[in-house]
Specification:
With about 1000 residues, this protein is of the alpha+beta class. It is built from 35 helices and 34 strands. β5 (about 115-120) and β6 (about 125) form a beta hairpin.
Amino acid sequence: MMLITRLQVIIALLTMTLMGCRKGSEPTAVEKYAANEEVAAYMRAFEGRGDLTDADLPPSSPENTLASFKLPEDMEARLVLSEPDIHQPLELQFDHKGRLWVVQYNQYPYPEGLKITSIDNHNRVKFDKQPEAPPLGTRGADKITFFEDSNGDGYYDQATDAITGLNIATSVALGRGKIWVLNPPYLLAYPDADDDGIPDGDPVVCASGFGLEDTHSVANSLHWGPDGWLYGVNGSTTTASISTAKTSNLSFSGQAIWRYHPELEEFELFAEGGGNNPFSIEFDSQGRVFSGSNGYGRGPYYKQGAYYIKGWGKHGPLTDPFAFGYLENMPLEGERKRFTHGLVIYEANGLPDRYQGKIISVNPLHGYLQMSRFENRGSNFSNIDEETLLESTDKWFRPIDIKVGPDAALYISDWYDSRLSHVDPRDTWYKESGRIYRISAKGNKPKSLNEDLSRLSSKDLLAYFSHPNKWFRQQALRLLGDRKDRVILAPLMKILETERGQPALEALWASYQIEGISLEMAKIGLEHVNPMVRMWTIRLLGDEKEVPADIFPLLKNRVKKETHPEVRSQILSTCKRLPPYQTFELLTALMASENSEQEDPDLPLQYWWAVSAQARKDHNAALEFITQNKLNHHPLVSQTLLPRLAQQWTLQGKEEHYRSLQSLLHHFQKEEQLLAISEGILEGSRGKALGELPSYLLEAMETYIGGINMAFVHVEDNHPSAFGRAKELLFDENVPLIQRNAWIEQLGYAQSNEGKELLLELTQKTPSKALQRAAIQALSYYQDPEIGDVLARAYPQLRADSYTREALITLFTTREEWAFSFFDALEKERTIHREDVPPHLALAFKDLEDKDLIQKVENHWPELAPLSDREKTNRIKRYKQKIEEEKGDLLLGKQLYLQTCAACHVLNGEGGSIGPELTGYDRSDLEYLLLHTVDPSADIREGYETVMVKTLSGSFYSGKVQDESGDMLTLSPVLGGKSVNLKTSEIAQKELQSRSTMPERMLERLSDKELRALFAYLME
């Protein structure tokens, strides 16, 4: 049954128990990886601070873990492989012979032979060098093994190490006579002409430049797409600068689906962003692309050329500075439990019908499998959780990959470790275990593939196009793509023409992989009854970068009458890739049809991305397109395209762009259209004075827009009455607040002496607290030392409103000279009180990097002094002892939670959103909770990081990155308030802050009884 004898099993279990009593495998010496004492000290500091490997919970045998599974009545589980045959199984793949390939990630977390020169509290590291590609350089512990079933009984009794000595290897795929391996920073292709699974020689480096900063979010999950490209995923916190034989230094920061063409040797981003840390890739039967997400949902449905949500502060901006928006992950209706990574869409015949077409996801943090269903949502989907398919009482159970096998059963790889979090940088991972389970319909006996699909003729492979198990269809398609057998083109065309369902789509893909798009194929595909065939025909035409002249009229005719939302979505993706003259003809045809595109969750932005890409190639063509009379009344023009096009051209800022903006103002006459253009120009001018715009554009704005919206333009021109008019408008309660806010913001950008005086007057005299706060923030753009003195004197009259008070204190933290004005008022005049200053703002004074200011903060707020590593460790131990002494009072605990935590965190539906929601975390681990409470900066959750920005003029700003596009960075205050807009050209330094906004000493104010009560409630 297994590869090991009974005696070996006993020895392995004894070894595991002994190792478990020692908190897993022995930690690798810090000195092995630390290049300097600073890094070594950081790593050592975690010892004893809430060990993430549970010393009190030894590992169970594979059989006992299997026995702990709770499954639906119509399913059962079997153990397929376990230690010592496999360790740390990161990825599973089945090949065309039925062999089970396992990537064993033994080298994790750090590459062998490299030293860490720096490390941050997000565990992003820098190494002393770049590792050489195998077989050169230092050999690592990773290996790729394939397992075979010699007698067809469904159990793998033969093991072969195909490739060893790899050094951070995450994925494997077979095809084109090669074994493809992701071993960041490299994509490698090992020759395997005889298809025996053993490389015939050294690998070829097909792509290089995948980042290694964080080895739990590196490039991963190779998968052949139906178009013949090899697809992969990039995690969140690694960067990339990819080069191939035909691609040079294509750079991006995390979170992307990418693809590599094995014949063209080209690399491109397929889609960017998505989730928190995408790991895994799944193609459904229609060729749609999905990936898991380290978050609360099931990730995105990735569309070609689209941009998805990212953790901007930690993961960096999109590669397109003019994206001006992004698509969200698929909305989820279900319990908000964190950490769903891998997923499959079950499209096979081995489980009961109720599982067909469902998303089945693994959740390693909580140790279960989740089944969800799709719901149509225009051109996209939403997800609804239906039921938990597998649960285990074994806390070491960590399912991290899931695949559907040739037998239509589910196969689950189990990392098997009581530790899962990567917060601790030390290598304390338990490396003695790893399991693979088979989940099938009850009574379904294991049965392995008893034939080698590669031995079938091309004609015989066509029969698999209608196989009920998607795995067979994907294997047959990949083998046909390998062969490029033109003999079967005629049968493929017949299938495409006569079939209506899945076989037609498979035939289209196969034909394309063999010969590309032909006229005959396009004629049939564009008019096919199956919308997915139409969608893919359009996508494949777009991949050619220009539609042939004899096919383009057919495509344009299809676009005019297409109604299916997903097909229309793909038309927009394709338009982004084609030459401008073709794109704008297709967009005109698409917009002429009667569809409510603006109500779709994705299509409006997809329209913009197509227009934006082409406007950069030929802005005159874009102007001609947008100003054609037939589009004058289309809602997408005023709601989506005009404001963004105006913003892009303003940001690009050349003569040709300003002249085009002038033309827009001349052509569009409706108020909503002119408002859209003016909003775009204002957005494009964020952070700079409108007086920088050319006079002819300002005159056009005055002519066509006029009124209050344009009055502030003249402030920069120093018109005699400009500031008088500004004052009138700002104090006129009949002027809408939003317009007065825009005025105030522009006065901040102008940075004139008259503007400063007006803002100071407004701060002290306006009855509107909202305008008062806006004026205070606008003053932060100035550099005048006088501002600090004036506002420090005015503070007693302004402090009554808590929001105004916090805006004032925030202003003082942005410049050194203003900070000294603040402390003079605090220490000498005694007009500012220590109690007025919230902890996060008191600490912000330290960020000004002045030793005198740092000393003042420590003198006035000694309770905010950071705990030493030893103090943190001791507190964690002491708190744990107190909490475990007796049971806590749940009612009191809830009251304490609402008083101390709920302002920032949601738990069980109650609380604020400043910090991460706690409901979906594994709250049963006391040491884990204590670590993050005592040392909240140990690991700052994605989406809750703050950045510190220093400008060339010496101002300091901190906040969450709300947007980074064009030449602007927008920061939003952590605790709410008006955003700050900064020109990237004026930024001297930008770095992610290592300090959490949550204070360290929150538990010190609690009695032992209160401490027990709070954690009893948190862990309930």
